[in-house]
Design brief:
The protein is of the alpha+beta class and about 700 residues long. The protein is about 25% helix and about 25% strand.
Length: about 700
């Protein structure tokens, strides 16, 4: 590569791409050590209760079974920061699928057979796993996920709504959703005396090391956590999960290296998921469409193990100008697995509801839905009153409408048909906050003219190591091929998780500072470099996390065209188009992949992804990829992603915003709004499966007499 190709924004190829396509990239479960054993967990078979007895005899009698760990003999753990990691410490069963045992075997097959042979008896207790908006156990928490206040109110939302000439009062429902990374959660643990090394499928090795130190009574300098290659996470690997704790426990108990790779069928209950959310939106407006009142109430559930409240009403505090704004979160504790982060927590389900309601308001007013959003563009962040560091949502809407051909759209629902197919198009806006956290990084000039950059970033398939290398090359002013980068090693220093669309901003900030300092040292006469090279380090504590007087968010606009089959009820998305304003794009190739991936995930949320908690057994019915449907290639026709390159000096040295999550925000609403435009029927519950859509079609008269043809 030439120096001109190191400029940020260039479509540099992913550095680990060849390793992945040739199968030489090693994931957490693929590290071979002498004497390595495998372990398989035993999930609880009751929805709530306690273990009254465990008979490990049948398992231990099987060939190759080395040990059976239960609450009776497992190593005692320290108090975890996360109660979901207090594994095998008591007979209490808080929900179905909670791990009550672990079988260690010479092989994966032996461990699996042993786990099936363990005999566990229970004393079952009554349970409740059903969320309703009027559940008697619902309460208003102090905060929602992310520390957001559960309730906010500006002006008199109730009074303004009642006085509004035009009103929309609607409810929406999003079912439980699951992250489904290609690589299940896995860890390999090795003890060497009192030193512990762990290869973990995690979005952040710093967090894993900190939790393991607390659980096993170690100082952090005696633990090394590595996560060189991670096969997706979507938030579910953002905090330590049971696999890493069980692997370390089993290795300590047996004195051998141990790998725990969780079976996919167990993931829904033990690695977090997006909890179901019930939404009520009340929008008041004047006859021209300007909002006079906006109220968003979200009800969700949490487990009894740990409180987690999806912040689904938070995006309403950002999006539209209104003199009266109210948001409220309510949560119901149930006997369910603990919810957690899933791509764009809060914004994803919240913007589905808000953007669907905005579409309903546009239809009620007879106003173009693009123009309605532009009309209600705020001058500053509605909740805080802070100025936006940059906000180009209007440009995204205008550019998206131009590229999509929105002007040719007949606004009348049900106005376009192709034989038995109804065709419609929809739009929705997107937003996601800009975040960054402190990080450490080092840059070393080597005698051979190359550079070595180290940062404890985690590449979960996003191309993070490639973009960090580009940031380094740009700061050093050298060609990209002279920069070598090492990531995902907790010994490199603390770093935040790959989550909240903050990874590149956080790691890149530290990389930029370290490389800029090194470049300064190299400007003057330095003479021949020593064999170990010349090093510069950076710690962005106090800068990356400094308070700023600006509201910092990324924005975007989604457009979708769908067909609805009036015979089968099947919805197909012909094309999706997104335009995003996310600061300076650092790598056009990997950025486009992130946007397209998020949009595709939103398509799955709209049409296919569904999970049900069985009220009798307290279990997720859809527990594998045969029953929990995600989009296949045949479901994704045309997905296009574009962006408005922003100049924003209030972000970080690269001028970038996170892009990993904004692609999914609003995508499902755009599809749902397109289905309404095609059919004239408003479906307010996801996903839009053929049975749901066909039932709606049969219940309504339809143009051209097409039903049943």
């Amino acid at each position: 590569m030439t120096g001109t190709e190191t400029v940020l924004g260039a479509p540099a190829e992913r550095r680990e791409g060849r390793e992945k396509v040739t199968g030489t990239a090693r994931y957490a479960a693929e590290y071979e050590f002498p004497g390595r054993a495998q372990a398989w967990p035993v999930p609880a078979a009751v929805a709530r209760g306690r273990v009254t007895g465990v008979d490990p005899g049948p398992a231990l009698a099987l060939p190759g079974v080395l040990a059976v760990l239960t609450h009776e003999n497992a190593p005692r753990l320290g108090e975890p920061d996360d109660p979901t990691l207090a594994l095998l410490q008591s007979p209490h069963v808080p929900h179905r699928g909670w791990f009550v045992g672990l079988v260690v075997g010479e092989t994966l097959e032996a461990a699996r057979a042993g786990a099936a042979a363990v005999r566990v008896t229970y004393e079952a207790e009554s349970h409740d796993v059903t969320l309703t908006v009027d559940h008697p156990g619902a309460y208003v928490p102090e905060t929602a996920n992310g520390g957001f206040p559960a309730v906010t109110e500006e002006g008199d939302a109730e009074g303004a709504f009642a006085a509004s000439p035009v009103r929309v009062d609607v409810a929406y429902e999003v079912p439980p959703l699951h992250n489904q990374p290609m690589e299940p959660h896995s860890s390999t643990a090795v003890w060497d005396g009192e030193r512990l090394t762990v290869h973990s499928s995690s979005q952040g090795s710093t967090a894993v090391r900190k939790e393991l130190a607390a659980l096993f009574g170690l100082t952090e300098d005696r633990i090394t956590v590595l996560a060189e290659h991670v096969g997706g996470g979507f938030g579910s690997k953002g905090t330590p999960r049971p696999d890493v704790v069980l692997a370390v426990m089993a290795a300590l108990h047996t004195g051998r290296p141990v790998t725990v790779a969780l079976p996919r069928r167990y993931l829904p209950t033990v690695v977090g998921h997006r909890a179901s959310t019930l939404h009520r939106l009340r929008l008041g407006a004047g006859p021209e469409g300007r909002l006079t009142s906006l109220s968003h109430e979200a009800t969700t559930y949490t487990s009894r193990v740990k409180e987690f409240v999806e912040q689904a009403a938070v995006p309403a505090r950002v999006m539209y100008g209104t003199p009266a704004l109210r948001t409220l979160h309510r949560v119901v504790p149930l006997d369910v697995p603990t919810p957690s982060w899933m791509r764009a927590p809060g914004e994803c389900p919240g913007m589905y509801a808000l953007e669907s309601a905005m579409d309903e308001l546009a239809v009620r007013l007879g106003v173009d839905p693009v123009e309605l959003r532009i009309l209600n563009e705020p001058e500053a962040e509605p909740e805080s009153g802070r100025p936006f560091s940059s906000r180009h949502l209007v440009e995204c809407l205008r550019e998206g409408a131009r590229r999509f051909g929105w002007a040719e759209r007949d606004p009348r629902p049900g106005s376009r048909a192709e034989g038995p197919l109804l065709v419609g198009s929809g739009v929705a806006a997107a937003t996601y906050p800009v975040m960054a956290a402190p990080c450490r990084a080092s840059a070393r000039a080597l005698p051979d003219g190359g550079f070595l950059v180290r940062v404890n970033a985690t590449d979960i398939g996003t191309g993070a190591r490639t973009v960090c290398a580009q940031i380094a090359a740009d700061a050093l002013g050298v060609p990209l091929d002279r920069v070598r980068i090492e990531v995902a090693n907790s010994d490199f220093g603390f770093a935040p998780v790959a989550g909240g669309s903050s990874g590149t901003a956080s790691w890149g900030w530290a990389v930029h500072e370290a490389c800029a300092r090194l470049a300064e040292r190299l400007e003057g006469p330095v003479g021949p470099l020593p064999d170990e090279g010349l090093v510069a380090e950076a710690d962005t504590t106090g800068t990356a996390d400094a308070e700023v007087p600006y509201a910092r968010h990324a924005f975007g606009a989604h457009f979708a065209e769908v067909t609805v089959d009036t015979v089968t009820g099947e919805v197909r998305v012909r094309r999706m188009l997104g335009v995003f304003a996310a600061g300076h794009i650092l790598n056009s190739r990997t950025a486009r992949s992130q946007f397209v991936g998020g949009m595709t995930m939103g398509l799955g949320m709209a049409l296919a992804e569904d999970s049900t908690l069985d009220p009798a057994f307290g279990d997720f019915v859809q527990s594998d990829l045969a029953s929990y449907h995600v989009p296949a290639h045949a479901d994704v026709a045309s997905v296009e992603a574009y962006w408005v390159d922003e100049e924003d000096e209030h972000l970080n040295p690269m001028g970038s915003k996170g892009i990993g999550e904004i692609g999914i925000v609003g995508a499902a609403a755009a599809v749902g709004n397109a289905v309404h435009h095609a059919t004239g029927i408003r479906f307010r519950e996801l996903p839009l499966t053929p049975d749901l859509v066909l039932t709606g079609l049969l219940a309504h008269e339809h143009p051209a007499g097409m039903l049943g043809t």
